[in-house]
Specification:
Largest sheet: 7 strands, mixed
Number of domains: 2
CATH class of the largest domain: Alpha Beta
CATH superfamily of the largest domain: Medium-chain alcohol dehydrogenases, catalytic domain
Number of strands: 15
Radius of gyration: 19 Å
Shape: globular
CATH topology of the largest domain: Quinone Oxidoreductase, Chain A, domain 1
Helix content: 25-40%
Oligomer: single chain
CATH architecture of the largest domain: Alpha-Beta Complex
């Protein structure tokens, strides 16, 4: 079968190679899945660079999220691939305990983009931040894969959603997603804009997959008793929170590593999947798939995500 593999860590465009390899054999508790669609996530770029918290042995196939068909049964499923046999290939391995039924309302590309971003958003906004109807939610990178899911989930929860993006093209995308206010950080001060939009109160919940300056600015426009959810550091800069500032303003800084729930509360992930599938069925949420590319285009797609040039999700169709 064909599979993209990383032989040496580095930039995706330079280090990913499309190889002909044997179809992987499932280990204990694993299943073989024919890949119908694989979503490109920022962790795929980090894995290729050797900067992710998981470091598969070289060579390995990246691609952490997919929609596939279980070999032998034909069941259509979504979930995360079992590395080193990732989803940027014709076949991948998945842990049987981490298979989820693909929502019938979503096609393969949308279904492949549904699991990680929407689960992360659900846990971040509901379990960690306890977002309530009528509150104001600030979403950084609102046109990206993770941010776009948070915008939709915030609207579904009855919040007023402010999206921060980088550039006019991404601003248009965030508006189409339903954000009530979109701020282009390249042309305006998002801190001042948030304060103006909220009458000086600030955002009740901040959803931050960016870190760096986005986090620092968020501390200046979070509301009294607000909550900042730290989702990731796409900017490449990990901020050092000033706890004295959190004390003075009475806001909370909440970490979210969604993958840990698989260890500590796996049933919560299944419950969230049921809730999210119901939202998808009634059209309240729908993954933003900005591009669908053939398997041969996977390396370039990962590079685009690594460089911050994409909106929504790019999906690879083997």
């Amino acid at each position: 079968m064909k599979a993209w593999r990383v032989h040496e860590n580095g930039e995706p465009r330079e280090q990913l190679r499309l190889d002909e390899v044997p179809t992987p054999e499932p280990g204990a508790g694993q299943v073989l899945v024919r890949v119908r669609a694989a979503a490109v996530n920022f962790p795929d770029a980090l894995l290729t660079r050797g900067q992710y918290q998981i470091t598969p042995p070289l060579p390995f196939t990246p691609g952490v999220e997919l929609c596939g068909e279980v070999a032998g049964t034909g069941e259509r499923v979504i979930g995360t691939a079992a590395l080193p046999h990732g989803a940027f290939a014709e076949y991948a391995l998945m842990d049987a305990a981490r298979l989820f039924p693909a929502p019938e309302s979503l096609d393969d590309a949308a279904a492949a983009s549904f699991h990680i971003a929407y689960q992360t958003g659900w846990f971040g906004l509901h379990r960690r931040a306890d977002l309530r109807a009528g509150e104001t939610l600030l979403v950084h990178a609102a046109a990206g894969g993770v941010g776009s899911a948070a915008v939709q989930l915030g609207k579904a929860a009855g919040a007023t959603v402010i999206g921060v993006v980088g550039g006019p093209e991404k601003a248009a995308v965030a508006r189409e997603l339903g954000a009530d206010l979109v701020i282009d950080r390249t042309s305006e001060d998002f801190v001042a804009a948030v304060k103006e939009a909220t009458g000086g109160r600030g955002a009740d919940v901040v959803y931050d997959p960016v870190g760096g300056a986005a986090y620092q600015g968020s501390t200046k426009c979070v509301a009294f008793e607000g909550r900042i959810v730290v989702v990731g550091f796409a900017s490449g800069t990990i901020p050092a929170p000033g706890l004295n500032h959190a004390l003075v303003k009475n806001y909370s800084v909440l970490g979210l590593h969604w993958g840990l729930y698989d260890r500590y509360d796996p049933q919560a992930i299944r419950d969230a999947h049921a809730e999210l599938s119901a939202l998808a069925a009634k059209g309240a949420v729908a993954p933003l798939v900005s591009a669908r590319v053939p398997l041969e285009g996977a390396a370039e797609a990962v590079q685009r995500v690594a460089d911050g040039e994409s909106t929504g999700r790019i999906v690879v169709l083997p």
